[in-house]
Amino acid sequence: MAETLTNSSSAVASREASYAAILLGAIAALTIGGAWFFQLVLGIVPCPLCLEQRYAYYFLIPLAVLIAFAASRGTSRNILVMAFAVAALAAIANALLGVYHSGVEWGFWQGPTDCTGPLLKLDSGSLLDSIKTVKVIRCDEVQWRFLGLSLAGYNVLISLAMAVVALWGARAASR
Which of the four pLDDT bands, split at 50, 70 and 90, describes residue 4? Predict the structure, then answer.
């Protein structure tokens, strides 16, 4: 009887961990899909910091698929917990990058020199002509806001939500 309860409890925890991984992957996939929609359909070109914030999503999508697969196959609790912990850390790191980017947009601190600050004026004709054809996407200028938040601000909220889902998955996997 005790073994049946343990197996049943383990199956529920494994199922819950699988659900958490699927939800994590779905959030990441929908978010990156939304970013591509803003870029390719609406013409909002991402700045270098925006592109860096996408790395976590590119990492989390396949990781979530692996976690879901591993959880459905009864992989060791420790491995699942560690995988969810890595996912949570990636999401938290991405949230921090989003906070940094939001701070750059609001002028709280200086951003990277390659995409913020004043542009140099050059005198050389040919160099100036070639620079005129290059469009620099600035990290300190918001291209789109909704309800007072830029896309970097929404990245913070989404990344924190993914961290919560990953922690839920780790908790489920540890039972």
Answer: very low
